[in-house]
Design a protein that fits this description.
Elements (H helix, E strand, L loop, with lengths): L1 H23 L12 E11 L2 E11 L2 E11 L2 E13 L2 E22 L9 E27 L3 E26 L7 E27 L4 E14 L21 E15 L1
Antiparallel strand pairs: 1-4, 1-10, 2-3, 3-5, 4-5, 5-6, 6-7, 7-8, 8-9, 9-10
Length: 266
């Protein structure tokens, strides 16, 4: 533990020494108005609200049963990196790559056929753990750059977003009878499949950078992105008897992204 702590201190000291040397050089001395290229990274929270359900038919005791799995996707940590440059006067072009991943538990409600009586299903509930939602996005941004004094750079942006999403879905369940008189049954297991796709959406927002040194800035970002993915069209789901019954809406992609990080200006 002591060795690890010493190594962390050494790495931190080396980083700050590099920053000091980089910014103290007269060769690179610039004002905020002179910055034409920025590179940065940040971490924060992505607020996602997506309530998804998938309904699946299955065969048991020569009868058709049904279960419904419900997924509630909410906020979690997200990370992104960015690159932007001025094109003409105050107009710029930016590229931002973000990543969001969350593991949740899905609730399962099932109608299980009776082993002896037709049209006499038993109700059963269960939980499917370790359901993964992973979302990556490339945000292409038309930007407007505005400086305040010699320290602040504010940029508003809007543009298209390319989303890549993976959503785990419960595809089958395993059940176990409690015994005579077969009036109750338990869900004891499940299988999942991964649905995914690439979709087009949009993003809009702004970021603000405060240059603590000539080329190093503390940055704050507020971005809203939006897209949808119709998982009903995914090839991985075609073997299911029924999916997203009752006109279930598609996956909601993106959300509100609030983050802080570092910017390097050149």
């Amino acid at each position: 533990m002591w060795i690890i702590r010493q190594n962390n201190i050494a790495i931190t000291a080396t980083l700050w020494l590099f920053i000091f040397q980089f910014n103290s050089s007269d060769l690179f001395a610039q004002t905020v108005d002179d910055q034409r290229v920025t590179v940065g990274f940040s971490g924060g929270i992505q607020f996602v609200k997506d309530a998804l359900k998938n309904e699946v038919d299955f065969e048991l005791w020569r009868e058709t049963g049904t279960f419904e799995a419900s997924y509630n996707i909410t906020k979690d940590s997200a990370f992104d990196g960015s690159f932007a440059f001025l094109l003409y006067k105050r107009m710029g072009l930016g590229f931002n790559v973000s990543h969001f991943s969350k593991t949740i538990a899905a609730t399962i409600d099932a109608d299980i056929p009776h082993p002896f009586f037709f049209s006499f299903p038993r109700k059963a509930t269960g939980v499917a753990n370790n359901i993964l939602r992973r979302e990556s996005a490339i945000h292409i941004q038309s930007q407007y750059w505005h400086t305040i004094g010699d320290k602040f750079l504010i940029r508003g942006f809007i543009g298209p977003t390319i989303f890549s999403v993976r959503q785990d879905l419960v595809s089958t369940i395993q059940t176990k009878e409690r015994g005579y008189d077969y009036s109750a049954v338990d869900i004891i297991g499940h299988n999942t499949l991964a649905s995914g796709g690439t979709e087009l959406g949009f993003n809009i927002g702004f970021d603000m950078s405060y240059f603590v040194f000539d080329h190093i800035a503390l940055a704050g970002i507020l971005r809203y992105s939006r897209g949808t993915s119709s998982v009903e069209d995914q090839a991985t789901l075609r073997h299911l008897s029924r999916f997203s019954g009752q006109g279930q809406p598609p996956l909601e992609l993106g959300g509100t992204h609030l983050a802080a990080g570092l910017r390097f200006g050149f």
